[in-house]
Amino acid sequence: MSMTMSQKILAAHAGLERVEAGQLILCALDRIHGNDITSPVAIREFQKMGFEKVANPENVTLIMDHFVPNKDIKAAQQCKCCRDFANEQALESFFDVGKMGIEHALIPEEGLVVTGDLAIGADSHTCTYGALGAFSTGVGSTDMAFGMATGKAWFKVPSAIKFVLTGKLPKYVSGKDLILHIIGMIGVDGARYKSMEFTGPGARSLSMPDRLTVCNMAIEAGAKNGIFEVDDVTLQYEKEHAKRQLRVFKADGDAPYDAVYEIDLSALRPTVAFPHLPENTHTVDEIGDIKIDQVVIGSCTNGLFKDMREADEILKGRKVAKNVRAIIIPATQDIYLKCLEAGFIKDFIEAGCVVSTPTCGPCLGGYMGILAEGERCVSTTNRNFVGRMGHVDSEVYLASPATAAASAVLGRIASAEEVMK
Amino acid sequence: MKCTGKAVKYGDNVDTDVIIPARYLNTSDPKELAAHCMEDIDKSFHAKIAPGDILVGGENFGCGSSREHAPIAIKASGISLVIAKSFARIFYRNSINIGLPIVECPAAAEAISEGHQVTADLDAGQIRDFTTGQSFRTEPFPPFIQNIISAGGLVEAAKAGIIG
Q1: Which of B13, B27, B68 is the closest to A142 by Cβ?
Q2: From residue A52, how far is each of A47, A93, A144, B68, B158 by CA, in Å?
Protein backbone atom coordinates (compact mmCIF):
# COMPACT_ATOMS: atom_id res chain seq x y z
CA MET A 1 0.00 0.00 0.00
CA SER A 2 1.58 3.27 -1.07
CA MET A 3 1.55 6.38 1.12
CA THR A 4 1.21 10.15 0.85
CA MET A 5 4.05 12.39 2.07
CA SER A 6 2.12 13.17 5.27
CA GLN A 7 1.45 9.48 5.93
CA LYS A 8 5.16 8.65 5.50
CA ILE A 9 6.17 11.18 8.15
CA LEU A 10 3.53 9.86 10.54
CA ALA A 11 4.56 6.24 9.93
CA ALA A 12 8.23 7.04 10.59
CA HIS A 13 7.34 8.73 13.87
CA ALA A 14 5.11 5.84 14.95
CA GLY A 15 7.87 3.33 14.24
CA LEU A 16 5.70 1.65 11.61
CA GLU A 17 6.57 0.44 8.12
CA ARG A 18 3.32 1.75 6.78
CA VAL A 19 0.07 3.37 7.86
CA GLU A 20 -3.23 3.98 6.11
CA ALA A 21 -5.93 6.61 6.30
CA GLY A 22 -8.19 6.21 9.32
CA GLN A 23 -5.64 4.28 11.41
CA LEU A 24 -5.15 5.54 14.99
CA ILE A 25 -1.48 5.74 15.95
CA LEU A 26 0.73 7.04 18.74
CA CYS A 27 3.70 9.08 17.47
CA ALA A 28 6.92 10.49 18.92
CA LEU A 29 7.08 14.28 18.54
CA ASP A 30 10.05 16.42 17.50
CA ARG A 31 8.53 19.69 18.73
CA ILE A 32 5.69 20.67 21.05
CA HIS A 33 4.88 24.33 21.47
CA GLY A 34 2.33 26.67 22.95
CA ASN A 35 1.70 30.37 23.41
CA ASP A 36 0.61 32.68 26.24
CA ILE A 37 -3.10 31.84 25.68
CA THR A 38 -2.95 28.07 25.29
CA SER A 39 0.04 27.16 27.49
CA PRO A 40 -1.48 28.15 30.86
CA VAL A 41 -4.33 25.67 30.23
CA ALA A 42 -1.77 23.02 29.18
CA ILE A 43 0.36 23.67 32.27
CA ARG A 44 -2.71 23.23 34.48
CA GLU A 45 -3.60 19.94 32.73
CA PHE A 46 0.05 18.78 32.93
CA GLN A 47 -0.03 19.29 36.68
CA LYS A 48 -3.44 17.59 36.95
CA MET A 49 -1.99 14.53 35.20
CA GLY A 50 0.42 14.36 38.13
CA PHE A 51 3.54 14.83 36.02
CA GLU A 52 6.48 16.73 37.47
CA LYS A 53 8.93 16.91 34.58
CA VAL A 54 8.45 17.37 30.86
CA ALA A 55 9.73 14.35 28.94
CA ASN A 56 12.14 16.27 26.69
CA PRO A 57 12.82 19.87 27.79
CA GLU A 58 14.81 20.43 24.58
CA ASN A 59 11.71 19.73 22.46
CA VAL A 60 9.26 22.02 24.27
CA THR A 61 8.91 25.65 23.22
CA LEU A 62 6.82 28.40 24.81
CA ILE A 63 6.35 31.65 22.90
CA MET A 64 4.69 34.72 24.39
CA ASP A 65 3.04 36.33 21.36
CA HIS A 66 -0.73 36.76 21.61
CA PHE A 67 -1.21 39.43 24.27
CA VAL A 68 2.34 40.75 24.78
CA PRO A 69 3.71 43.15 25.86
CA ASN A 70 1.07 42.25 28.46
CA LYS A 71 -2.16 43.98 27.47
CA ASP A 72 -3.71 43.79 30.95
CA ILE A 73 -3.28 42.22 34.36
CA LYS A 74 -4.88 38.92 33.38
CA ALA A 75 -2.58 38.64 30.34
CA ALA A 76 0.38 39.40 32.61
CA GLN A 77 -0.68 36.57 34.93
CA GLN A 78 -0.88 34.15 32.00
CA CYS A 79 2.64 35.07 30.82
CA LYS A 80 3.95 34.76 34.36
CA CYS A 81 2.49 31.25 34.57
CA CYS A 82 4.38 30.32 31.36
CA ARG A 83 7.61 32.01 32.48
CA ASP A 84 7.59 30.25 35.86
CA PHE A 85 6.94 26.88 34.19
CA ALA A 86 9.72 27.44 31.62
CA ASN A 87 12.21 28.25 34.38
CA GLU A 88 11.09 25.42 36.62
CA GLN A 89 11.29 22.89 33.75
CA ALA A 90 14.54 24.36 32.36
CA LEU A 91 12.99 24.61 28.88
CA GLU A 92 15.63 25.36 26.28
CA SER A 93 13.40 27.56 24.17
CA PHE A 94 11.27 30.13 25.95
CA PHE A 95 10.67 33.35 24.02
CA ASP A 96 9.63 36.39 26.02
CA VAL A 97 9.21 40.07 25.14
CA GLY A 98 12.34 41.37 23.42
CA LYS A 99 13.24 37.95 21.99
CA MET A 100 9.86 36.69 20.89
CA GLY A 101 8.20 36.74 17.52
CA ILE A 102 4.85 35.49 16.28
CA GLU A 103 5.22 31.76 16.86
CA HIS A 104 4.75 30.48 13.30
CA ALA A 105 7.27 32.95 11.92
CA LEU A 106 9.72 32.43 14.77
CA ILE A 107 9.77 28.61 14.84
CA PRO A 108 11.04 28.11 11.26
CA GLU A 109 13.36 31.13 11.60
CA GLU A 110 14.94 29.60 14.72
CA GLY A 111 15.15 26.17 13.11
CA LEU A 112 13.03 24.66 15.90
CA VAL A 113 11.03 22.61 13.39
CA VAL A 114 12.92 21.26 10.38
CA THR A 115 12.25 19.21 7.25
CA GLY A 116 10.85 15.76 8.09
CA ASP A 117 9.82 16.65 11.66
CA LEU A 118 6.55 15.80 13.34
CA ALA A 119 5.40 18.82 15.34
CA ILE A 120 2.30 19.80 17.28
CA GLY A 121 1.47 23.21 18.65
CA ALA A 122 -1.38 24.48 20.77
CA ASP A 123 -2.35 26.97 18.09
CA SER A 124 -4.35 26.17 14.98
CA HIS A 125 -1.86 27.78 12.58
CA THR A 126 0.84 25.28 13.56
CA CYS A 127 0.20 23.76 10.12
CA THR A 128 2.55 26.49 8.77
CA TYR A 129 5.71 24.33 8.95
CA GLY A 130 4.46 22.00 6.25
CA ALA A 131 6.20 24.54 4.01
CA LEU A 132 9.47 22.99 5.24
CA GLY A 133 8.35 19.46 4.36
CA ALA A 134 7.43 18.72 8.00
CA PHE A 135 4.13 17.31 9.31
CA SER A 136 2.81 19.90 11.72
CA THR A 137 -0.65 20.41 13.07
CA GLY A 138 -2.56 22.46 15.62
CA VAL A 139 -3.94 20.82 18.74
CA GLY A 140 -5.56 21.93 21.97
CA SER A 141 -3.98 22.51 25.35
CA THR A 142 -4.63 19.00 26.69
CA ASP A 143 -2.80 17.46 23.72
CA MET A 144 0.05 19.88 24.41
CA ALA A 145 0.11 18.79 28.07
CA PHE A 146 0.12 15.12 27.08
CA GLY A 147 2.88 15.86 24.54
CA MET A 148 5.00 17.65 27.13
CA ALA A 149 4.52 14.80 29.60
CA THR A 150 5.13 11.87 27.27
CA GLY A 151 6.80 13.30 24.15
CA LYS A 152 3.95 11.75 22.15
CA ALA A 153 0.56 12.44 20.60
CA TRP A 154 -2.23 10.31 19.13
CA PHE A 155 -3.21 10.84 15.51
CA LYS A 156 -5.85 9.55 13.15
CA VAL A 157 -3.92 9.08 9.91
CA PRO A 158 -5.40 11.51 7.37
CA SER A 159 -6.21 10.94 3.73
CA ALA A 160 -5.07 13.72 1.39
CA ILE A 161 -5.96 16.10 -1.39
CA LYS A 162 -3.23 16.82 -3.95
CA PHE A 163 -2.72 20.26 -5.48
CA VAL A 164 -0.60 20.16 -8.62
CA LEU A 165 0.62 23.70 -9.26
CA THR A 166 1.83 24.86 -12.66
CA GLY A 167 2.99 28.22 -14.03
CA LYS A 168 4.37 31.15 -12.06
CA LEU A 169 2.68 33.82 -9.94
CA PRO A 170 2.19 37.14 -11.79
CA LYS A 171 3.45 40.40 -10.27
CA TYR A 172 1.47 41.58 -7.22
CA VAL A 173 0.03 38.09 -6.78
CA SER A 174 1.41 36.06 -3.86
CA GLY A 175 1.02 32.90 -1.83
CA LYS A 176 -1.83 34.61 0.03
CA ASP A 177 -3.83 35.00 -3.17
CA LEU A 178 -3.17 31.34 -4.00
CA ILE A 179 -4.41 30.01 -0.67
CA LEU A 180 -7.46 32.34 -0.67
CA HIS A 181 -8.22 31.11 -4.19
CA ILE A 182 -8.01 27.49 -3.01
CA ILE A 183 -10.22 28.10 0.06
CA GLY A 184 -12.72 29.90 -2.17
CA MET A 185 -12.70 26.87 -4.46
CA ILE A 186 -12.99 24.02 -1.91
CA GLY A 187 -14.64 25.86 1.02
CA VAL A 188 -13.82 26.24 4.71
CA ASP A 189 -14.38 22.53 5.27
CA GLY A 190 -13.17 21.35 1.85
CA ALA A 191 -10.15 19.59 3.33
CA ARG A 192 -11.63 18.75 6.73
CA TYR A 193 -9.54 16.09 8.56
CA LYS A 194 -7.32 15.77 5.45
CA SER A 195 -3.79 16.69 4.35
CA MET A 196 -3.30 19.24 1.58
CA GLU A 197 -0.20 18.23 -0.38
CA PHE A 198 1.35 20.74 -2.81
CA THR A 199 3.48 19.62 -5.70
CA GLY A 200 4.32 20.34 -9.35
CA PRO A 201 6.52 22.86 -11.16
CA GLY A 202 4.44 25.77 -9.84
CA ALA A 203 5.05 24.64 -6.25
CA ARG A 204 8.76 24.58 -6.95
CA SER A 205 8.58 28.14 -8.28
CA LEU A 206 7.19 29.46 -4.99
CA SER A 207 9.49 31.16 -2.47
CA MET A 208 9.67 29.83 1.09
CA PRO A 209 7.68 32.81 2.50
CA ASP A 210 4.88 32.10 -0.03
CA ARG A 211 4.89 28.41 0.94
CA LEU A 212 4.71 29.33 4.64
CA THR A 213 1.67 31.55 3.93
CA VAL A 214 -0.06 28.81 1.93
CA CYS A 215 0.46 26.13 4.60
CA ASN A 216 -0.46 28.60 7.37
CA MET A 217 -4.01 28.83 6.03
CA ALA A 218 -4.51 25.10 5.35
CA ILE A 219 -6.54 25.09 8.59
CA GLU A 220 -8.94 27.63 7.04
CA ALA A 221 -9.94 24.87 4.61
CA GLY A 222 -10.37 22.56 7.61
CA ALA A 223 -7.17 20.63 6.84
CA LYS A 224 -5.13 18.73 9.38
CA ASN A 225 -1.94 19.83 7.67
CA GLY A 226 -0.61 21.43 4.50
CA ILE A 227 2.71 20.25 3.11
CA PHE A 228 5.07 21.06 0.23
CA GLU A 229 7.32 18.59 -1.51
CA VAL A 230 10.95 19.12 -0.49
CA ASP A 231 13.14 20.74 -3.16
CA ASP A 232 16.14 23.05 -3.55
CA VAL A 233 14.22 26.01 -2.11
CA THR A 234 13.57 23.97 1.06
CA LEU A 235 17.14 22.77 1.33
CA GLN A 236 18.53 26.27 0.79
CA TYR A 237 16.22 27.65 3.51
CA GLU A 238 17.20 24.90 5.92
CA LYS A 239 20.90 25.47 5.22
CA GLU A 240 20.41 28.90 6.78
CA HIS A 241 18.09 27.87 9.63
CA ALA A 242 18.23 24.17 10.60
CA LYS A 243 20.51 23.13 13.40
CA ARG A 244 19.50 19.46 13.19
CA GLN A 245 19.60 16.69 10.61
CA LEU A 246 16.84 16.93 8.00
CA ARG A 247 14.75 13.95 6.90
CA VAL A 248 13.32 14.11 3.42
CA PHE A 249 10.08 12.22 2.77
CA LYS A 250 8.44 11.93 -0.63
CA ALA A 251 4.95 10.73 -1.52
CA ASP A 252 4.82 7.45 -3.45
CA GLY A 253 4.14 7.91 -7.15
CA ASP A 254 0.91 5.94 -6.82
CA ALA A 255 -0.10 7.33 -3.41
CA PRO A 256 -3.89 7.49 -2.91
CA TYR A 257 -5.53 10.94 -3.01
CA ASP A 258 -9.19 11.76 -2.36
CA ALA A 259 -9.00 14.45 -5.04
CA VAL A 260 -6.43 16.09 -7.30
CA TYR A 261 -6.66 19.75 -8.32
CA GLU A 262 -4.51 21.42 -10.95
CA ILE A 263 -3.96 25.14 -10.51
CA ASP A 264 -2.21 27.42 -13.01
CA LEU A 265 -0.49 30.08 -10.91
CA SER A 266 -0.12 32.41 -13.86
CA ALA A 267 -3.91 32.68 -14.13
CA LEU A 268 -4.40 33.84 -10.51
CA ARG A 269 -5.57 37.36 -9.67
CA PRO A 270 -5.21 39.30 -6.40
CA THR A 271 -7.93 37.78 -4.22
CA VAL A 272 -9.87 39.10 -1.22
CA ALA A 273 -12.01 37.08 1.25
CA PHE A 274 -15.11 39.02 2.27
CA PRO A 275 -16.78 38.75 5.68
CA HIS A 276 -17.43 36.48 7.45
CA LEU A 277 -15.69 33.38 6.09
CA PRO A 278 -12.33 32.88 4.35
CA GLU A 279 -14.19 31.07 1.55
CA ASN A 280 -16.11 34.21 0.49
CA THR A 281 -13.48 35.12 -2.06
CA HIS A 282 -13.59 37.64 -4.89
CA THR A 283 -10.83 38.76 -7.23
CA VAL A 284 -9.99 42.47 -7.13
CA ASP A 285 -11.57 42.81 -10.55
CA GLU A 286 -15.02 42.05 -9.11
CA ILE A 287 -14.84 44.49 -6.22
CA GLY A 288 -16.74 47.76 -6.30
CA ASP A 289 -16.09 50.81 -4.13
CA ILE A 290 -15.69 49.46 -0.58
CA LYS A 291 -14.45 52.16 1.80
CA ILE A 292 -12.24 51.05 4.68
CA ASP A 293 -11.26 52.34 8.13
CA GLN A 294 -8.20 50.25 8.94
CA VAL A 295 -5.46 48.15 7.38
CA VAL A 296 -3.39 45.53 9.22
CA ILE A 297 -0.25 44.14 7.62
CA GLY A 298 1.41 41.40 9.66
CA SER A 299 0.43 38.20 11.58
CA CYS A 300 1.66 34.60 11.37
CA THR A 301 0.23 34.53 7.85
CA ASN A 302 1.90 37.60 6.35
CA GLY A 303 4.42 39.15 8.75
CA LEU A 304 7.58 37.91 7.04
CA PHE A 305 10.30 40.09 5.49
CA LYS A 306 9.00 39.41 1.98
CA ASP A 307 5.55 40.63 3.08
CA MET A 308 7.08 43.81 4.50
CA ARG A 309 9.03 44.36 1.27
CA GLU A 310 5.87 44.01 -0.80
CA ALA A 311 4.06 46.51 1.44
CA ASP A 312 7.02 48.89 1.27
CA GLU A 313 7.08 48.86 -2.51
CA ILE A 314 3.59 50.36 -2.46
CA LEU A 315 3.74 52.57 0.63
CA LYS A 316 7.16 54.15 0.00
CA GLY A 317 6.73 57.79 -1.01
CA ARG A 318 2.92 57.58 -0.72
CA LYS A 319 0.48 58.48 2.04
CA VAL A 320 -2.12 56.43 3.85
CA ALA A 321 -5.55 57.80 2.89
CA LYS A 322 -7.38 60.20 5.19
CA ASN A 323 -9.52 58.41 7.80
CA VAL A 324 -7.58 55.14 7.44
CA ARG A 325 -5.39 53.72 10.20
CA ALA A 326 -2.58 51.48 8.91
CA ILE A 327 -0.95 49.11 11.41
CA ILE A 328 2.18 47.23 10.37
CA ILE A 329 3.53 44.38 12.47
CA PRO A 330 6.78 42.63 11.45
CA ALA A 331 6.43 39.09 12.82
CA THR A 332 9.76 38.69 14.62
CA GLN A 333 12.48 40.83 16.15
CA ASP A 334 14.84 39.71 13.38
CA ILE A 335 12.37 40.72 10.66
CA TYR A 336 11.81 44.06 12.44
CA LEU A 337 15.55 44.70 12.45
CA LYS A 338 15.89 43.76 8.78
CA CYS A 339 13.02 46.16 7.95
CA LEU A 340 14.82 48.88 9.89
CA GLU A 341 18.07 48.25 8.02
CA ALA A 342 16.25 48.19 4.68
CA GLY A 343 14.62 51.55 5.42
CA PHE A 344 11.08 50.13 5.42
CA ILE A 345 10.23 51.38 8.91
CA LYS A 346 11.06 54.95 7.87
CA ASP A 347 8.98 54.54 4.71
CA PHE A 348 6.04 53.16 6.71
CA ILE A 349 6.14 55.94 9.30
CA GLU A 350 6.48 58.64 6.64
CA ALA A 351 3.48 57.15 4.86
CA GLY A 352 1.47 57.56 8.07
CA CYS A 353 1.51 53.96 9.31
CA VAL A 354 2.14 52.82 12.87
CA VAL A 355 4.73 50.05 13.29
CA SER A 356 4.33 47.66 16.20
CA THR A 357 6.48 45.18 18.07
CA PRO A 358 5.60 41.57 17.11
CA THR A 359 2.17 40.54 18.44
CA CYS A 360 -0.89 38.56 17.35
CA GLY A 361 -2.98 41.36 18.94
CA PRO A 362 -5.33 42.70 16.26
CA CYS A 363 -5.73 39.45 14.27
CA LEU A 364 -7.87 37.89 16.98
CA GLY A 365 -9.34 41.09 18.36
CA GLY A 366 -7.07 41.05 21.39
CA TYR A 367 -5.65 44.58 21.30
CA MET A 368 -3.53 46.91 19.08
CA GLY A 369 -6.19 47.63 16.50
CA ILE A 370 -9.69 46.72 17.66
CA LEU A 371 -12.52 47.73 15.32
CA ALA A 372 -15.56 49.79 16.33
CA GLU A 373 -19.15 49.04 15.32
CA GLY A 374 -19.57 49.17 11.54
CA GLU A 375 -15.85 49.60 10.79
CA ARG A 376 -14.08 47.77 7.97
CA CYS A 377 -10.51 46.48 7.89
CA VAL A 378 -8.41 45.03 5.08
CA SER A 379 -6.08 42.63 6.81
CA THR A 380 -3.31 40.24 5.83
CA THR A 381 -4.37 37.97 8.71
CA ASN A 382 -6.15 34.64 8.34
CA ARG A 383 -9.71 34.83 9.71
CA ASN A 384 -12.65 37.14 9.09
CA PHE A 385 -15.23 35.53 11.36
CA VAL A 386 -17.96 37.59 13.06
CA GLY A 387 -16.33 39.82 15.69
CA ARG A 388 -12.86 38.48 14.96
CA MET A 389 -11.13 41.88 15.13
CA GLY A 390 -13.48 43.68 17.47
CA HIS A 391 -17.11 44.73 17.47
CA VAL A 392 -19.56 42.04 16.42
CA ASP A 393 -20.76 44.40 13.64
CA SER A 394 -17.28 45.15 12.26
CA GLU A 395 -15.90 43.57 9.07
CA VAL A 396 -12.57 42.02 8.10
CA TYR A 397 -11.48 41.53 4.47
CA LEU A 398 -8.54 39.15 4.06
CA ALA A 399 -5.94 40.01 1.44
CA SER A 400 -2.24 39.96 0.55
CA PRO A 401 0.26 42.56 1.83
CA ALA A 402 0.31 44.21 -1.62
CA THR A 403 -3.48 44.50 -1.74
CA ALA A 404 -3.65 45.69 1.88
CA ALA A 405 -0.99 48.36 1.27
CA ALA A 406 -2.73 49.55 -1.89
CA SER A 407 -6.03 49.70 -0.02
CA ALA A 408 -4.39 51.81 2.70
CA VAL A 409 -3.25 54.32 0.08
CA LEU A 410 -6.59 54.56 -1.72
CA GLY A 411 -8.87 54.27 1.32
CA ARG A 412 -10.91 51.53 -0.33
CA ILE A 413 -10.26 47.90 -1.26
CA ALA A 414 -7.92 48.13 -4.23
CA SER A 415 -5.22 46.22 -6.06
CA ALA A 416 -1.53 47.10 -6.13
CA GLU A 417 -1.82 47.38 -9.92
CA GLU A 418 -4.13 50.34 -9.51
CA VAL A 419 -1.64 52.22 -7.31
CA MET A 420 1.47 51.29 -9.28
CA LYS A 421 0.18 51.88 -12.80
CA MET B 1 -23.43 7.52 28.37
CA LYS B 2 -26.90 9.12 28.24
CA CYS B 3 -27.70 12.80 27.75
CA THR B 4 -31.15 14.38 27.98
CA GLY B 5 -32.19 17.97 27.44
CA LYS B 6 -33.81 20.39 25.07
CA ALA B 7 -32.10 21.41 21.88
CA VAL B 8 -30.56 24.80 21.16
CA LYS B 9 -29.71 25.03 17.48
CA TYR B 10 -27.24 26.94 15.27
CA GLY B 11 -26.20 26.80 11.61
CA ASP B 12 -23.06 25.82 9.66
CA ASN B 13 -19.48 26.89 10.44
CA VAL B 14 -20.00 27.97 14.04
CA ASP B 15 -16.42 29.10 14.74
CA THR B 16 -14.48 29.15 17.99
CA ASP B 17 -14.35 32.97 17.87
CA VAL B 18 -18.11 33.14 18.36
CA ILE B 19 -18.13 30.25 20.82
CA ILE B 20 -15.70 32.20 23.00
CA PRO B 21 -14.41 35.54 21.64
CA ALA B 22 -10.64 36.08 21.95
CA ARG B 23 -11.17 39.22 24.03
CA TYR B 24 -11.98 36.87 26.91
CA LEU B 25 -8.95 34.62 26.42
CA ASN B 26 -6.96 36.49 29.04
CA THR B 27 -8.41 33.92 31.43
CA SER B 28 -8.82 30.15 31.35
CA ASP B 29 -11.31 29.97 34.23
CA PRO B 30 -14.20 27.75 33.02
CA LYS B 31 -16.88 29.81 34.82
CA GLU B 32 -15.65 33.12 33.40
CA LEU B 33 -15.42 31.59 29.91
CA ALA B 34 -18.91 30.09 30.23
CA ALA B 35 -20.33 33.53 31.07
CA HIS B 36 -19.38 34.71 27.54
CA CYS B 37 -20.11 31.49 25.66
CA MET B 38 -21.80 32.08 22.27
CA GLU B 39 -22.40 35.77 23.02
CA ASP B 40 -21.28 37.01 19.58
CA ILE B 41 -23.73 34.71 17.81
CA ASP B 42 -26.59 34.59 20.33
CA LYS B 43 -26.90 37.01 23.21
CA SER B 44 -29.79 34.98 24.64
CA PHE B 45 -27.81 31.70 24.82
CA HIS B 46 -27.68 31.61 28.61
CA ALA B 47 -31.30 32.66 29.01
CA LYS B 48 -32.36 29.82 26.69
CA ILE B 49 -30.47 26.91 28.21
CA ALA B 50 -30.81 24.81 31.35
CA PRO B 51 -28.19 22.35 32.66
CA GLY B 52 -28.12 19.21 30.51
CA ASP B 53 -29.38 20.87 27.34
CA ILE B 54 -28.08 19.73 23.97
CA LEU B 55 -26.37 22.00 21.46
CA VAL B 56 -27.10 21.20 17.80
CA GLY B 57 -24.87 22.54 15.01
CA GLY B 58 -24.55 22.23 11.23
CA GLU B 59 -21.44 21.49 9.16
CA ASN B 60 -17.89 22.20 10.40
CA PHE B 61 -18.90 23.03 13.97
CA GLY B 62 -16.01 24.53 15.97
CA CYS B 63 -13.91 25.66 13.02
CA GLY B 64 -11.07 28.13 13.48
CA SER B 65 -8.80 28.54 16.44
CA SER B 66 -7.42 25.62 18.47
CA ARG B 67 -8.53 27.28 21.71
CA GLU B 68 -9.59 24.56 24.14
CA HIS B 69 -11.41 27.41 25.86
CA ALA B 70 -14.24 26.79 23.34
CA PRO B 71 -15.30 23.27 24.44
CA ILE B 72 -14.46 24.27 28.04
CA ALA B 73 -16.90 27.22 27.79
CA ILE B 74 -19.63 25.00 26.29
CA LYS B 75 -19.15 22.30 28.93
CA ALA B 76 -19.06 24.82 31.80
CA SER B 77 -22.29 26.38 30.46
CA GLY B 78 -24.02 23.12 31.34
CA ILE B 79 -24.39 21.71 27.82
CA SER B 80 -24.38 17.89 28.07
CA LEU B 81 -23.84 17.02 24.40
CA VAL B 82 -23.07 18.65 21.04
CA ILE B 83 -24.67 17.06 17.97
CA ALA B 84 -23.51 18.38 14.57
CA LYS B 85 -23.50 17.41 10.91
CA SER B 86 -19.69 17.56 11.09
CA PHE B 87 -17.01 18.97 13.37
CA ALA B 88 -13.77 20.81 12.70
CA ARG B 89 -10.97 18.45 13.65
CA ILE B 90 -9.22 20.38 16.43
CA PHE B 91 -12.54 21.09 18.16
CA TYR B 92 -13.47 17.40 17.85
CA ARG B 93 -10.16 16.34 19.36
CA ASN B 94 -10.30 18.93 22.12
CA SER B 95 -13.84 17.91 23.10
CA ILE B 96 -12.81 14.27 23.45
CA ASN B 97 -9.69 15.28 25.37
CA ILE B 98 -11.61 17.40 27.91
CA GLY B 99 -14.59 15.03 28.18
CA LEU B 100 -17.29 17.08 26.42
CA PRO B 101 -19.53 14.50 24.71
CA ILE B 102 -19.95 15.20 20.99
CA VAL B 103 -21.47 13.19 18.20
CA GLU B 104 -21.50 13.55 14.44
CA CYS B 105 -24.99 12.77 13.10
CA PRO B 106 -26.07 14.69 9.95
CA ALA B 107 -29.64 13.33 9.99
CA ALA B 108 -30.28 14.28 13.62
CA ALA B 109 -28.60 17.68 13.24
CA GLU B 110 -30.84 18.37 10.24
CA ALA B 111 -34.11 17.16 11.74
CA ILE B 112 -33.96 18.36 15.34
CA SER B 113 -35.36 21.87 15.84
CA GLU B 114 -34.68 24.34 18.60
CA GLY B 115 -36.64 23.58 21.76
CA HIS B 116 -37.19 19.91 20.96
CA GLN B 117 -36.71 17.46 23.80
CA VAL B 118 -33.81 15.13 22.90
CA THR B 119 -32.22 12.05 24.47
CA ALA B 120 -28.99 10.48 23.27
CA ASP B 121 -27.56 7.13 24.30
CA LEU B 122 -24.01 7.24 22.93
CA ASP B 123 -23.14 3.66 23.90
CA ALA B 124 -26.20 2.32 22.13
CA GLY B 125 -25.58 4.73 19.22
CA GLN B 126 -29.05 6.24 19.34
CA ILE B 127 -30.52 9.76 19.39
CA ARG B 128 -34.26 10.33 19.96
CA ASP B 129 -36.25 13.49 19.35
CA PHE B 130 -39.21 13.15 21.73
CA THR B 131 -40.98 16.16 20.28
CA THR B 132 -41.31 14.52 16.86
CA GLY B 133 -40.80 10.89 17.84
CA GLN B 134 -37.94 10.46 15.35
CA SER B 135 -34.92 8.22 16.07
CA PHE B 136 -31.43 8.42 14.60
CA ARG B 137 -28.50 6.01 14.56
CA THR B 138 -24.96 7.22 15.32
CA GLU B 139 -21.59 5.61 14.64
CA PRO B 140 -19.84 4.35 17.78
CA PHE B 141 -16.37 5.78 18.54
CA PRO B 142 -13.37 3.56 17.67
CA PRO B 143 -12.09 1.63 20.75
CA PHE B 144 -8.98 3.86 21.11
CA ILE B 145 -11.13 6.98 21.46
CA GLN B 146 -13.76 5.13 23.52
CA ASN B 147 -10.98 4.38 26.02
CA ILE B 148 -10.17 8.09 26.34
CA ILE B 149 -13.84 8.97 26.77
CA SER B 150 -14.48 6.18 29.30
CA ALA B 151 -11.49 7.34 31.33
CA GLY B 152 -13.03 10.85 31.44
CA GLY B 153 -10.65 12.55 29.03
CA LEU B 154 -7.00 12.43 27.99
CA VAL B 155 -5.69 13.57 31.39
CA GLU B 156 -7.45 10.72 33.18
CA ALA B 157 -6.46 8.25 30.45
CA ALA B 158 -2.82 9.26 30.81
CA LYS B 159 -3.02 9.04 34.61
CA ALA B 160 -4.53 5.57 34.36
CA GLY B 161 -1.79 4.51 31.95
CA ILE B 162 -4.37 3.63 29.26
CA ILE B 163 -2.32 5.44 26.65
CA GLY B 164 1.18 6.89 26.54
Answers
A1: B68
A2: 7, 18, 15, 22, 14
| Contact partners, residue A154, CB within 8 Å, separation at least 6 | A24, A25, A26, A27, B144, B163
B158, closest residue in chain A (CA to CA): A49
A5-264: in CATH 3.30.300.30: no
Q: How far is A332 from chain B (nearest CA, A)?
A: 21
Which value does ipTM take for this structure? Answer: 0.93
Q: What is the DSSP string of A6-22?
A: HHHHHHHHHT-S---TT
Number of H helices, E strands in chain A: 15, 18
A26/B163 CB distance under 8 A: yes
Q: How far apart are CA B76 and CA A165, in angstroms?
A: 46
Q: Which residue of A has its CA nearest to B68?
A: A140
Radius of gyration for chain B, computed over Cα atoms and rounded to the nearest angstrom: 15
Q: Which of A41, A66, A139 sits opposite B90 (nearest CB)?
A: A139
Domain ranges of chain B: 2-138
How far apart (Å, rounded) are the C-alpha atoms in residues B68 and B70?
Answer: 5
Classify domain B2-138 by CATH architecture.
Answer: Alpha-Beta Barrel (3.20)
Q: Which residue does chain A place closest to B95, by CA atoms?
A: A140
Domain range summary for chain A, segments of one domain joined by +: 5-264, 272-420
Q: Which of A139, A142, A383 sits opposite B98 (nearest CB)?
A: A142
| Contact between chains at B41 and A139 (C-beta distance less than 8 A) | no
Q: Which residues of chain A make contact with B93, given a CB cutoff of 8 A? A: 139-140, 143
Fill in the amino acid letter for A303: G
- Digit-coded pLDDT (tens) for A324-379: 999 999 999 999 999 999 999 999 999 999 999 999 999 999 999 999 999 999 99
Give the CATH class of A272-420.
alpha beta
Angle between helices B89-98 and A141-150 (to 10 degrees): 70
Q: Would A5-264 and A272-420 be classified into the same CATH topology?
A: yes
- Amino acid letter, residue B158: A
pLDDT bin (cut points 50, 70, 90) of residue B164 is low
- Residues A303-324 have pLDDT tens digits of 999 999 999 999 999 999 999 9
Residue contacts between A and B (CB atoms, under 8 Å): 138
Question: B40: which residues sit within 8 A by CB, 6+ positions away?
Answer: A386, A387, A392, B17, B18, B21
Look at B28 and A67 and tell me if their CB atoms are within 8 Å: no
Kindly state the helix (H) or strand (E) to which residue A225 belongs, with its residue range.
strand A225-228
